[in-house]
Amino acid sequence: MEINEPTSNGHASDNNNIKAINDDEYLSDFLRNHRDFDVDKVQSVREIREIAENKLSQNASLYYNCGSGLHEQTLLDNELAFKQYRFRPRVLRDVAVRDMTTSVLASKVDLPFGISPTALHKYAHDDAEPAVASAARHLNALLVCSTFSSKSLEEIAESAPKSIKWFQTYIFEPRDITLNLVKRAEKAGFKAIVITVDHPLTPKRPYKYKYTVLNNFLPELFFGNFGMGDDTEPFNASVTWDDIDWLRGVTALPIVVKGVLTPDDAVIAVQHGVHGIWVSNHGGRQLDGAIASVDALPDIVAAVEGHCEVYVDGGVRHGYDVLKALALGANMVFIGRPPIWGLAAGGERGVRRVLEILRDELSEGMALTGCAELSDISKEMVVKKTYR
Q: Would you say residue 219 has pLDDT above 80?
């Protein structure tokens, strides 16, 4: 979760000596001119984020936006990696109507991107996860709920009973913790279990996180599915593929493993009967220096050979990023921080606006690349910047 967005300059005229427009300057001007902003008029995720940062407490902003390691390299790489891919558009195709509906684990949704599991939404807005769930329901978008939510999984399910929801958790020690959560999720109507597999322990965070968030924020946390937080490390460093087999034996729900970055692990996941592989580096919050998720995606898609669905998250900030990930083989693309920024900026309506912005950008990108429906999107439509 990045603290500073990468900055890029606009294009100045070669002949007129026009000053290039800096993104940060633009966003500062945007805020000055939109102090009483209407969230429905915001036109980009970047604008949503800038508004959110002016509403979030320093502790909350660091908690949501921080990466791991001293340099937060993977955090930055996730966004930058998307900028290395270029489109090769097709022309003279009928794209007057674009259809973005798709199916994911046999559930039909209206968007090929969904909301990733992120923790503790009440520190962004008092309405917390139910507001995010309601926003997803309005656009018939897939929502994945975090084990470490501010509200209980039952409260989230009740807030949007007809929406498609998955539940994310971990293999805890003892396993009974996981089993209890899975059974609660089944009863509440969640459609799949997402197991995060890249978290044997919590790595070091940057200095600013350690001395601001850990000392002033985490001691006050309340988890809707557990209660008050404490200093206990809940994660289990002894988890293996055998635990995935155990999980398959205690639930009939489809199982997705989240946090896979190599083709070798993707093949093993298929051998253990998972229904989905989620290519992810935990939003740059685990191993700093890990490959960007979108760069890991193509090799994993190739290795899986269609035996299960493949998803990706990390660094998606524009509908064109969604289009690139779909072209590289993802069945579904997930966004983590943007919904939090939307929640902070305007509650449920802010989250809906984030989804609408990405939807409209994706629709525009589909039209400009000659794609009337998702099946028209192919790997030949994107290429690395080297043009090889």
A: no
pLDDT at 33: 53
Bridge partners (DSSP) listed for residue 85:
384
What does R_g of the chain's alpha carbons equal in angstroms? 20
**How many Å apart are CA 179 and CA 240, to the nearest integer?**
16
CA distances from 304 to 53, 134, 271, 333 (A): 39, 34, 10, 17
The model's confidence at residue 1, banded by pLDDT at 50, 70 and 90, is very low
- Is 318 a residue of the active site? no
Average pLDDT, the chain: 89
**How many other CB atoms sit within 10 Å of the CB of residue 99?**
14
- In eight-state DSSP terms, residue 189 is T
* CA 162 remoteness from chain centre: 22
DSSP secondary structure code for residue 257 in this structure: E
**Please, which residues have CB within 8 angstroms of residue 188's CB and are 6 or more apart in sequence?**
153, 154, 157, 167
Strand partners, 102: 109
Distance CA 363, CA 95 (A): 10
DSSP string, 82-149: HTTEEE----S---SS-B--EEETTEEES-SEEEPP-S-GGGT-TTHHHHHHHHHHHTT--EEE-TT-
pLDDT over 90 for what percent of the chain? Answer: 77
> Encoding tokens for residue 167?
């539940």
| pLDDT (0 to 100) of residue 107 | 97
Condensed to tens digits (0 to 9), the pLDDT of residues 27-86 reads 555 554 555 568 888 999 999 999 999 999 888 898 899 999 989 999 999 999 999 999
Rounded Cα distance between 251 and 233, Å, is 26
Q: What is the secondary structure of 191-203 as a DSSP string?
A: --EEEE-S-SS--
- Cα 156-160-163 angle, rounded to 5 deg: 115
Q: Which two structure tokens, joined as six digits, stand for 72?
A: 């937060």
Active-site pick, 125, 199, 275, 282: 282
pLDDT, tens digit (0-9, with 9 covering 90-100), for 148-206: 999 999 999 999 999 999 999 999 999 999 999 999 999 999 999 999 999 999 888 77
**Which domains are present in the chain?**
102-384 (3.20.20.70)
